Amino acid sequence: MGWAPDALGNPNRTRLHTTHSIEVKYYDRPEKISGQNGILVDRRARMRTGGGVSCLGDHGTDKKQSFLGYMFYQPLLVS
Questions:
Q1: Cβ-count burial of 62 within 10 angstroms (0-12 exposed, 13-18 middle, 19+ buried)?
Q2: In the prediction, which pLDDT does 53 show?
Q3: Separation between Cα atoms, residue 71 and residue 79, nearest integer Å
Q4: What pLDDT does residue 29 have?
Q5: What is the C-alpha separation between 25 and 16, in angstroms, rounded?
């Protein structure tokens, strides 16, 4: 997780960004051609605040700038 300045020339704008991932292997048969398999879940969240923007967009003319996303991966692992 990081909290840092976000816009060149706009010292009042900051950003918080975080990424969390989990990977689970649920199949492991090394003697088979496609002998391994798992799933990966990735969650990302980002918000910006200050300098004309806010996380919720609730400060007068400030624009909302926030993001929350999930990704699911089903890779095929060939050994």
A1: middle
A2: 86
A3: 25
A4: 81
A5: 31
- Domain residues of the chain, as ranges? 2-77
User: Tokens 């060149």 map to which residue?
Assistant: 8
Interval 15-71: pLDDT, tens: 888 999 999 988 888 787 777 888 999 999 999 888 888 888 777 778 888 999 999
Tell me which amino acid residue 36 is: Q
Is-contact 13 6, C-beta < 8 A? yes
What pLDDT does residue 43 have? Answer: 95
Buried b (16+ CB within 10 A) or exposed e, 12-47: ebbbbeeeeeeeeeeeeeeeeeeebeeeeeeeeebb
